[in-house]
Amino acid sequence: MTYRLLLLDDEPGILNALTRVINRIGADRLGAPCQISAFTDTGPALESLQNEPYDLVITDFRMPAMSGLDFLREAIQRQPGIARIIISGHADLPTVVAAINDAQVFRFVGKPWDDNELQLAVIQALHVYALGRENQRLADLVRIQQGTISRQEAALRELEAECPGITRVERDEHGAIYLDEENL
């Protein structure tokens, strides 16, 4: 198993610093190695969320095209179970409350951050994410045993968690399956 992280900040230097701090955590403390994808623009980051499964997204609050909060709302649409952290040097109480209530942010980290605090937030977010997935898997097993969902439904849920969007089929106006050639 490898944890997949998406980092988003419009400043490349911040992305490099985030990557260095996260890479110093070590697989022994996380329970698995990390694979990091870093983006300076929300467009490619959202496209990546559409095509790749992630365990954690860390975004700056202030982005040029779309706020970090709006980005997280979009991320939730694409991958509902993804863990979320916002970093910001310009946060006020209403912003923090909106992030927690609307985007269900796991942690709000201020800039400049303390490396240990950020590492701890990442470790905790990934562990909570992993526990949530394991709880869902176990709950599905109980439902199968109780007969409330089928093995097929449980397998589809697990497949959707691993590869978001794979279980959704788009059809055209005649009912034929629509394939988006750009995403093949």
Query: What about the largest sheet?
Result: 5 strands, parallel
The percent range for strand residues is: 15-25%
H/I helix tally: 7
**What's the Cα radius of gyration?**
18 Å
Record field, number of beta strands? 7
Strand order of the largest sheet: 2-1-3-4-5
Please provide a written account of the structure.
The radius of gyration is 18 Å and the shape is globular. It has 7 helices and 7 strands. The longest helix has 32 residues, at 115-146. It has 184 residues and is of the alpha/beta class. A 5-stranded parallel beta sheet has the order 2-1-3-4-5, with helices on both faces. A two-stranded antiparallel sheet has the order 6-7. It has 2 domains: 3-129, 3-Layer(aba) Sandwich (Rossmann fold), CATH 3.40.50; 134-183, no CATH class. Helix 3 packs parallel to helix 4 and helix 6 (115-146) packs antiparallel against helix 7 (151-162). A hairpin with a 5-residue loop joins strand 6 and strand 7 (177-178).
Map the helices and strands.
Blueprint (H helix, E strand, L loop, with lengths): L2 E6 L3 H12 L3 H4 L3 E6 L2 H10 L4 E5 L7 H11 L4 E6 L4 H10 L4 E4 L4 H32 L4 H12 L7 E2 L5 E2 L6
Parallel strand pairs: 1-2, 1-3, 3-4, 4-5
Antiparallel strand pairs: 6-7
Helix pairs in contact: 3-4, 6-7
Structure summary:
With 184 residues, the protein is of the alpha/beta class. It has helices at 12-23, 27-30, 42-51, 68-78, 93-102, 115-146, 151-162; strands at residues 3-8, 34-39, 56-60, 83-88, 107-110, 170-171, 177-178.
